[in-house]
Design goal:
Elements (H helix, E strand, L loop, with lengths): L9 H4 L10 H16 L3 H7 L4 E10 L5 E12 L5 E8 L4 H18 L4 E8 L7 H14 L9 E5 L5 H15 L20 H19 L8 E5 L3 H12 L3 E7 L2 E4 L6 H10 L11 E3 L1 H5 L5 E4 L8 H6 L4 E3 L8 H9 L3 E3 L1 H4 L2 H15 L5 H26 L3 H20 L4
Bound molecules: glutamic acid (GLU).
């Protein structure tokens, strides 16, 4: 009976895999393992919860503008749907891997559970370079991927959303393609879509706004006034730029931001609105931004600031960067920006790390509000959305903080403990269907 095996006996019958610290799935597992020990998770549940429930891999043929046919690899990983339909974004990037999507899907499971949303976790990805594709090519790619996964998606089954390099327009194409196949308009099948198609007010800013809310909560805990705090933000996409703008509006001095072209620094503070306008006129990048000195990515991550917001991608903060950082608070706008080896260093240095599954949960929280609005056919004001989002994020922050104190662990492990416990409790109540 596997259920009678003590959790510590796992090592006896299962060879531990060699650790590859740049593998996001292993990064997830290292933290999951700690939470599982604390929770004394039933070993059978452990085996079930650390694996994705289903993984879909599809070859997506696309006719390019030249007439040539290219085939792209697409993924959709459903990590877990014990708490409800699975939820998670779709990312487009040349270096997406199945393992990365597996990790991102698992993070969605813990994130939704931690926030108390009635969703499981999923993630999708397509290996492509959206920068080199025309709008029409991206549309054909999105539509064919959606058609391929028609049986997987659904408002009661699996609900995609934007992620890295995907946006409202792409979600509109997902909605339309799904609806054409379903032969009815089904706006609750996707979130992060335009407001004119049943999207929610406040969804686009939601992740950045959530980052701001938990940053303010952390500042309060450390007795810091926003107007005394300096901030550096890695990444100037939807999450990074919004977080920078909202933190500046709270009185913080945002001294550095970055994108793929590098970092931009001004010790007196950057004008984020001006930078956003500049990127719009400059083909989407910060390259050549006025009133800022150029710095490297590494320099940005090791600046002497009060708050560092990594809002770019995974695996950015290793042990060396963690040693070098001058930040007192790190708020993970991105998923998985910190390696497990860096966790230890940051904890020793007493840096307060607000982990990804809490810090960037504002996006999926408003996705939930969007799904609820679509299903009710009743839409909320932006003020109502923001008020509920702020409250949800605040409460989640306080609960994670308390859980971490209770077990004498980092906020990250506290967040995993909360998320994993919630899913395990639901699994216990539902039982294993034979
Ligand atoms: N891609 C976002 C995330 O990583 C949002 C997912 C969603 O709204 O479903 O949390």
């Amino acid at each position: 009976m596997p259920f009678d095996i003590d959790v510590h006996e796992r090592a006896v019958y299962r060879e531990p895999a060699p650790i590859d610290r740049d593998d996001p799935f292993q990064s997830m597992m290292e933290r999951f393992d700690v939470a599982a020990e604390i929770l004394e998770l039933n070993p059978g549940f452990y085996e079930y919860l650390c694996r994705p429930s289903r993984m879909h891999i599809t070859s997506v043929p696309v006719e390019m503008d030249t007439g040539q046919i290219m085939v792209y690899e697409g993924y959709r990983v459903i990590h877990n749907d014990v708490l409800g339909p699975s939820k998670g974004g779709i990312r487009f990037a040349p270096d997406v891997t199945l393992n990365e999507v597996k990790a991102l899907a698992a993070w969605m499971t813990w994130k939704c559970a931690l926030l108390g949303l009635p969703f499981g976790g999923a993630k999708g990805g397509i290996v492509c370079n959206p920068e080199q594709m025309s709008a029409k090519e991206l549309e054909r790619l999105t539509r064919r991927y959606t058609a391929d996964l028609f049986d997987v998606f659904g408002p009661d089954k699996d609900i995609p959303a934007p992620d890295m390099n995907t946006n409202e327009q792409i979600m509109a194409w997902v909605l339309d393609t799904y609806s054409m196949h379903a032969r009815r308009t089904e706006n609750a099948v996707v979130t992060g879509k335009p407001v004119g198609l049943g999207g929610s007010e406040g969804r686009q800013e939601a992740t950045g706004r959530g980052v701001m809310t938990v940053t303010l909560a952390a500042m309060e805990r450390l007795d810091l006034a926003p107007s005394d705090c300096t901030v550096a933000v890695q990444g100037f996409g939807n999450v990074g730029a919004t977080a920078a703008e909202l933190l500046a509006a709270q009185g913080c001095t945002v001294v550095a931001v970055s994108d793929i072209t590098g970092g931009y620094y001004n010790e007196k503070g950057l004008d984020i609105n001006e930078l956003r306008n500049y990127t719009q006129k400059n083909g989407g990048t910060l390259d050549g931004s006025p009133n800022a000195d150029r710095i490297t990515n590494e320099e940005l991550l090791t600046l002497d600031v009060d708050v560092l917001v990594p809002a770019a991608k995974e695996d950015q903060i290793d042990a060396e960067i963690a040693e070098g950082t001058g930040a007192r608070i790190i708020v993970e706008g991105a998923n998985g920006p910190t390696l497990p080896e860096a966790d230890e260093v940051l904890q020793e240095k007493d840096v307060l790390v607000i982990p990804d599954i809490l810090a960037n949960a504002g996006g999926v929280t408003v996705s939930y509000f969007e799904w609820v609005q679509d299903r009710q056919g009743f839409f909320w004001t932006e003020e109502r959305v923001n008020r509920r989002l702020d409250r949800t994020m605040r409460e989640a922050f306080e609960k994670v903080y308390e859980t971490a104190e209770e077990h004498d662990v980092s906020l990250r492990i506290g967040a995993y403990v909360m998320g994993v416990r919630k899913v395990a409790e639901a699994l216990r109540m539902r039982g294993i269907y034979a």
